[in-house]
Amino acid sequence: MEVVMARPPSVFVRELDPEEAHRIRGLSRKGKTFAQRQRAQIVLASASRMSARQIAEAVRTDDNQVRRVIREFNADGMASLDPRTGGGRPTKIDEPTRARIVAIALAHPQDLGEAETRWSLRRLRCYLIRTKVVKVISREQLRRILNDAGVTYQRTRTWKWSPDPLFEAKKDWVLAAYAAAEAGTLDGVVVSFDECGPISLRPWPGSAWARLKRPPRQRATFNRRNGVRYLFGAYDVGADHLIGELWAQKNAAAVLRFLKSIRRRYPAEVTVYFVMDNLSTHWTPEIRAWAADTANNVALLATPTYASHLNRVECQFWSFVEFVIRGSDYPDWAAFERAAKAYIRRRNRDHHDPRIRELEYRRRVA
């Protein structure tokens, strides 16, 4: 008798507040390590209710890793996005003392009776010895204790809370549309649209496998006389199909032409729901009028203000940047466009879905 193994149930991250989503989105693009960027993108993708399998395919990892990242984030929050490895010789400072050192470092000096607005390692060391937290400690040992606890010296940052009065309603609309498209219960298709860029022709830093102490080399001298390009991306949520085109400009006219080209890919009787963020070039009077014309059979769904992470094409852009742009040095735009198209073809082949062939067939016979 054949035993059929049940698929593990999907897990999802807890609901993100706008501040968390803003910070995580920044880490997914500018994180110091690949692991940090990948973990951040997994959390963002899960926030848009993508399943573990879909996320694993998008960010090029396995289902178990996706579920592990989600569970760790739900348990530990932002700290889980920067995994640390153990090792090294045994410590001479016990854990309670280390915890107290970290707490003092995170406290504002003026709250502890000091005159400064921030700690330097030297001043923090003097304070710890003067208050008899430790008898002796070097600045380097202090630095290691803080690094082991995930405490680093950083600039202050600002954050924005979404002023959108319809935040919850818009979020529910977008997530409900995704769920219906994946379940096949929607009377149409859901297409996430956004732009990636600007992208310039220059040596992009990246990473690759290499022999010990023999990293790949890139030229350091370059100019920016070739202008920039933008990748216009459209992601069919139900069919798991990505469409991408390079454009020299990112303006309202280009956006409308691209949206019309996407609309022509589907039969006229199929309603196309476009999910877009609130960029001004996405909501011009011309685009609104085109969508309002019932003959076009188009509907526009806006993500909440400062919540573009709910747009699922963002996850596809992350993989595009990691595997097409980072570590590259294309000689011209033609070479870059060939690489971009090859990647998108490969991505769609890897994420093959029978519904893609059905849609293409219907488009040809329409």
Topology of helices and strands:
Blueprint: H1 18-30, H2 34-47, H3 52-59, H4 63-76, H5 95-106, H6 121-130, H7 139-148, H8 167-183, E1 188-200, E2 228-236, E3 241-247, H9 252-263, E4 271-276, H10 285-292, E5 298-302, H11 313-325, H12 333-350, H13 354-365
Parallel strand pairs: 1-4, 4-5
Antiparallel strand pairs: 1-2, 2-3
Summary of the model, kept short:
It is built from 13 helices and five strands.
Description:
The chain has helices spanning 18-30, 34-47, 52-59, 63-76, 95-106, 121-130, 139-148, 167-183, 252-263, 285-292, 313-325, 333-350, 354-365; strands at 188-200, 228-236, 241-247, 271-276, 298-302. With 366 residues, the chain is of the alpha/beta class. The chain has three domains: 18-81; 95-148; 167-206 and 227-365, Nucleotidyltransferase, domain 5 (2-Layer Sandwich). Strands 3-2-1-4-5 form a five-stranded mixed β-sheet, with helices on both faces. Strand 2 and strand 3 form a beta hairpin. Helix 1 (18-30) packs antiparallel against helix 2, helix 2 (34-47) packs across helix 4 (63-76) and helix 3 crosses helix 4 (63-76).
Order of helices and strands: HHHHHHHHEEEHEHEHHH
Alpha-carbon Rg, integer: 25 Å
What is the total number of structural domains? 3
- The pLDDT mean sits at 86
CATH architecture of the largest domain: 2-Layer Sandwich
Number of strands: 5
CATH class designation of the largest domain: Alpha Beta
Count of helices?
13
Strand order of the largest sheet: 3-2-1-4-5
* CA-based shape: globular
User: Under CATH, the topology of the largest domain is which?
Assistant: Nucleotidyltransferase, domain 5
- How far is it from the N-terminal to the C-terminal residue, by CA? 46 Å
Largest sheet: 5 strands, mixed
Identify the CATH homologous superfamily of the largest domain. Answer: Ribonuclease H-like superfamily/Ribonuclease H
* Strand portion: 5-15%
Structural class call reads alpha/beta
